Structure prediction request, 394 residues.
Amino acid sequence: MSRCLADRGIDHVVLERGEVANSWRRERWDSLRLLTPNWQSRLPGFRYEGDDPDGYRTVPEVVAFIDRYARVIAAPVQTNTTVTSVRAADDGYLVATDQGDWSCRTLVLATGACNIADVPAVAAALPPSITTLTPIQYRNPGQVPDGGVLVVGASATGTQIAAELRRSGRPVTLAVGQHIRVPRVYRGRDISWWMDAAGVLDERYDQVDDVERVRRVPSLQLTGSPGRITLDLNALTAMGVKLVGRFAGINNGKAQFSGSLRNMCELSDLKMNRLLDTIDAWAMENGVDGEVDPPHRLAPTVVEESPPLVLDLGAIKTVIWATGFRPDYSWLHAPVFDRKNRIQHDGGVARSPGLYVMGLQFLRRRKSALIDGAAPDARDLSEHLKSYLDGRSF
Ligand SMILES: Cc1cc2nc3c(=O)[nH]c(=O)nc-3n(C[C@H](O)[C@H](O)[C@H](O)COP(=O)(O)OP(=O)(O)OC[C@H]3O[C@@H](n4cnc5c(N)ncnc54)[C@H](O)[C@@H]3O)c2cc1C
Prediction:
């Protein structure tokens, strides 16, 4: 957004509570790699030029990449400045920080979609003897006591951490709710390549039937590894991870799971096959069919006959809550929230004049919460912002 504002000649400052790329420096586990390939982090005027476009960046590489971009575009970043409150003022906003106040006519909230780990309230009922960690706190298996681990949530985060803890020799149970299964590589090309080329990731928020529902769809069950492996539930089962249904609650020292595991997996397989059908149709229509491997389908997810509905917590030393993230707008004092405390916006244009938001799930496009979604969203929103500053009405 800073680059797009500069391109439009709009004077601005970027306030950052830590350092550039702070969430990547402070809130990610050690072994994490981007699940998007190197070529797919396209920022305004900046793309990958290395010799491994299909590789997946490590966290230090992501930090270096964002750091370099900030320097190349000479972004006016004021680091170590935490915004503590935002209020509407006569002609804009009053932004209070721990380094003094700012006033501005327009304000872009780019504080991230993943500030807080979304842990279910029932977590409070776990016995205190059990260590609990969120993905923001988790760094590596060395931090986790020996013994059984329950990982709750089977999207990208939960499956990756479950695999890592299983590899460390611990017995791991994975509680599986709604999840989006996809192969890492399909017909010889990365699934991200297909979704990008076929326009799936460019689908706009005003083209889908129920955008609020789509905004809550979990992340793709993907991992970025040098071997380009598909880390789906079958792969985890083969490693010895035990699958159970959605975490439902705790009773008498036992964790309870819903009986929906089979349905969840069948639904996920069905949706994956629909996506692969879309890709095959696109390949056929666009003359790619002959250049790639023939279509194929993955084996259905294997679910045991009667997955356990309870688990004695006596066998569990650690619970990892990989149940999603949410943004933190506790410092924003403006009438822009719905009943569930979610910020209301129309493709990033908030319901308060001159206020914009970025980086949220499906904000304007399916890829809005990916690094690759920032460029088109920033272009659109900076155009709107410029028109607003120029006094054109909406
Ligand atoms: C575990 C995980 C893995 C991911 N993997 C990928 C991936 O493989 N590929 C991909 O494209 N995307 C991935 N993402 C999404 C990724 O976070 C975003 O694509 C990208 O970081 C979003 O950038 P952002 O600037 O919108 O948000 P963030 O990177 O979260 O940046 C927000 C910034 O705002 C600062 N901030 C917050 N509150 C305040 C405040 N009150 N005052 C001042 N500063 C504040 C933070 O310190 C932070 O630096 C992943 C996310 C997570 C959580």
Summary: Residues 15-18, 22-23, 28, 34-36, 82-83, 110-112, 114-115, 135, 157, 325, 331, 358-359, 369-372 surround flavin-adenine dinucleotide (CB under 6 Å). The two ends are 21 Å apart (CA to CA). The CA atoms of residues 30 and 139 lie 5 Å apart.
